[in-house]
Give the backbone structure.
Amino acid sequence: MGISRDSFHKRSRTGARRAPIRMKRKYELGRPASMTKLQGPKRVHVVRTMGGNKKFRALRLETGAFSWASEGISRPCRLIDVVYNASNNELVRTKTLVKNAIIQIDAAPFKTWYENHYNTIIGKKKGRANTEAEEAILSKKRSDKVQRKIKARNAAAPALDAALDEQFATGRLYACISSRPGQVGRCDGYILEGKELQFYLRKLRARR
């Protein structure tokens, strides 16, 4: 028996078994879940669907594009780990990528952008002196116009969230997947911030 999305095999609300009035139809078919894994190299299968359309079934992924909403930027990032899934803990153990899973991504692309954009160092532990690379960023030669621009940015920008700053220090950011890897062949999402980040940090602490 193939996977079907019809409702004839379901009982009614009162518990009565429905009698099928016809055979299965092509437009009611379902397909097995892709169970996209966090590992490389990237592997995506193309599935031909109704009307000659295509679905991109990602079987393995290791990178994705993630956005930082409060800063209005997005960067391609390396996926590191799956840490939380509200629907099933087994998907965390097997490192399965699905929509709304909470994962950890590489913080380096966003850290580099922030430090160059605001001419400031983030993710630095208290009492630690700046490294040569960090000093190079701060002492980089800039024109008067660029210096005025950076000064205006710093005046207008809100302070970096303390929870985010701690994550930058570890080199990993918590992010949520907003795409459907088994349907579009990509693992894209957004960085967790504010109340949403606090909510998932509480969930992660409770699991430990």
Notes: Strands lie at 37-38, 43-48, 54-61, 63-68, 73-84, 102-106, 172-177, 189-191. The two ends are 41 Å apart (CA to CA). The chain has a mean pLDDT of 90. Helices lie at 90-93, 108-118, 132-138, 144-156, 162-170, 181-184, 194-207.
